[in-house]
Amino acid sequence: MTVRLEPLRDEDLPRCAELEKALFPGEDPWSVRAFQFELENGNHYVGAHVEPDGLVGYAGIAMLGSPGHYEGEIHTIGVDPGHQGKGIGKALLRDLLDHADKAHAPVFLEVRTDNVPAIRLYETHGFEQIGLRRRYYQPSGADAYTMARPGRTSE
């Protein structure tokens, strides 16, 4: 299986919204408009494509602050349930981290406390738990860990 990562395009957004509904039942999944807003604001979003299935994953990061003082905030990573466990989430995360590393930026994210596979993925990429946000996800009321990875200052 060959995974092709490409910048997320407007034509990918309906599929992203469809995946959101499948991946985050009981929550408030992102709409096409929410993804459009992220792209319009210049945030870095990438899609994972697999032939013949097309778009099977997406991820995005916002860079906040000013030159020399950026912080990265991962907004979302999602992989089609039928393609999970095949390294697609890892490839998407690495793309986001490479983007942040170019700015030597620390990276922050929130993850459900019961999402053990995602937590392990983040930990293997240098993230540590720095906080707990009670009832962060709505409407379910699920808790989230806040995790951080320091900025990379050299290769």
From TrEMBL:
Keywords: Cytoplasm, Transferase
Principal localisation: cytoplasm
Catalytic reaction equation(s): N-terminal L-alanyl-[ribosomal protein bS18] + acetyl-CoA = N-terminal N(alpha)-acetyl-L-alanyl-[ribosomal protein bS18] + CoA + H(+)
Top-level taxon: Bacteria
PROSITE patterns assigned to the protein according to its UniProt record, in alphabetical order: GNAT
One GO location term (cellular component): cytoplasm
Localization in the cell: Cytoplasm
CDD domains: NAT_SF
InterPro entries named in the record: AcTrfase_RimI/Ard1, Acyl_CoA_acyltransferase, GNAT_dom, MshD_Acetyltransferase
UniProt EC number: 2.3.1.266
Keyword Cytoplasm found: yes
GO MF annotations in UniProt: protein-N-terminal-alanine acetyltransferase activity
N-acetyltransferase domain ranges (all copies): 3-152
Similarity remark: Belongs to the acetyltransferase family. RimI subfamily.
Role played: Acetylates the N-terminal alanine of ribosomal protein bS18.
NCBIfam families: rimI
Protein's recorded name: [Ribosomal protein bS18]-alanine N-acetyltransferase
Species whose genome carries this gene: Kibdelosporangium phytohabitans
